[in-house]
């Protein structure tokens, strides 16, 4: 569910939604979501002073609170 949420938010922010990919790496206590976008859209996903990335991480942690598993977001370039 968290993977779909990150993908939906990222696709709505960028100019090239076809280049958005989210890879899920499972661990015992944590899950890492790796977000890749087109090089021209990286600034749109991070935002000024990292505000959009921080907001995405906040929404992600709120949605994963019920499962008891920690979910983190990494934006890869």
Contiguous helical run count: 3
Query: Spans of 5+ residues with little confidence (pLDDT < 50)?
Result: none
| Largest sheet entry | 3 strands, mixed
Binned, the helix content reads 25-40%
What sequence of helices (H) and strands (E) makes up the elements? Answer: HEEHHE
GO molecular function, one term: RNA binding
Protein name: RNA-binding protein KhpA
Function: A probable RNA chaperone. Forms a complex with KhpB which binds to cellular RNA and controls its expression. Plays a role in peptidoglycan (PG) homeostasis and cell length regulation.
GO cellular component, one term: cytoplasm
Verbal overview:
With 77 residues, this protein is an alpha+beta fold. It has a single domain (2-76), classed as K homology (KH) domain (GMP Synthetase, Chain A, domain 3), CATH 3.30.300.20. 39% of the residues lie in helices and 26% in strands. It contains three helices and three strands; from the N terminus they run αββααβ. It has helices spanning 2-13, 42-46, 51-63, and strands at residues 21-26, 30-36, 70-76. The model has no long low-confidence stretch (mean pLDDT 92).
Fold topology:
Elements: H1 2-13, E1 21-26, E2 30-36, H2 42-46, H3 51-63, E3 70-76
Parallel strand pairs: 2-3
Antiparallel strand pairs: 1-2
């Amino acid at each position: 569910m968290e993977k779909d949420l990150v993908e939906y938010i990222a696709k709505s922010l960028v100019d090239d939604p076809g280049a958005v990919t989210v890879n899920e790496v499972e661990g015992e206590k944590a899950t890492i979501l790796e977000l890749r976008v087109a090089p021209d859209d990286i600034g749109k996903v991070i935002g000024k002073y990292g505000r959009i990335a921080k907001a995405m991480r906040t929404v992600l942690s709120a949605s994963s609170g019920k499962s008891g598993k920690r979910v983190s977001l990494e934006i890869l370039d």
